[in-house]
Amino acid sequence: TPGVSAFFKYFLEPQYAYVIAMFFVAYFCLGGFTILLTPWAKLDLGAQAALIGFMLTLRSVSAIPGPFVMEFLLSKLGMPKTVALFFVATSASVCAIVIQPHWNWICILCLILYGVFYFSIVNALLPTLIFAVFGKSMRVEAQSLLAFSRGIASSLTIGLGWLANIYGTSQILLGSVLIGFAILMGLRFLMQHQWNSALRDYEASFAG
Q1: At 195, is the pLDDT very low, low, confident or very high (cuts 50, 70, 90)?
Q2: pLDDT of residue 13
Q3: Is the pLDDT assigned to residue 1 strictly greater than 50?
Q4: pTM
């Protein structure tokens, strides 16, 4: 088991830091909606407890078909297009729902799309890419870094809640998603060398 210094050295290795950074941004920025769903529904939509409970359930249940959708799209589009599509779909669903003035069919559709795409991103799509980059011999290290990233991102969401109290939940959610989407697209398309390296590792993991 690697020591503390060995653990953090992975953040200094470009090929490892790249995929972990992508996961962290997705988990924190796109996942803010999961954390702030209840206060947003109560304060911005004026939803009662029963409706909020329905929204939480719908979001969670919608994650069930996510892996099947992911596998289908991976087989048809490949990893590069699937990653981009999932980022776009998740971000668009949050942006569309937080600007709604009241509960309507758009909210229902967006919650379903969010559940399908977001949970697939952080629970399957990006972890698969990360495990491929780290390789089978470093699967424990990859798991540890994922857990560490989740913990740090979850801790930082306290800041989102604090900002939401000042500027409004919808505004913070919209800003968080747009910033996260911009960073993710930058990581995906502007750091092409690192992406291509991660993609080669992903394809090699199946070829091997």
Answers
A1: very high
A2: 86
A3: no
A4: 0.91
For 101, list phi and psi in degrees, rounded to 5. Answer: -80, -20
Helix axes 32-43, 105-120, angle to 10 degrees: 160
* Per-residue pLDDT tens digits for 25-48: 999 999 999 989 999 999 899 999
> Which residue has tokens 């995929």?
19
CA distance 15 to 199: 11
Q: Are 97 and 111 in contact (CB under 8 A)?
A: yes
Amino acid occupying residue 65: P
Q: Which three-class secondary structure string do you get for the chain? A: CCCHHHHHHHHHCHHHHHHHHHHHHHHHHHCHHHHHHHHHHHHCCCCCHHHHHHHHHHHHHCCCCHHHHHHHHHHHHHHHHHHHHHHHHHHHHHHHHHCCCCCCHHHHHHHHHHHHHHHHHHHHHHHHHHHHHHCHHHHHHHHHHHHHHHHHHHHHHHHHHHHHHHHCHHHHHHHHHHHHHHHHHHHHHCCHHHHHHHHHHHHHHHHC
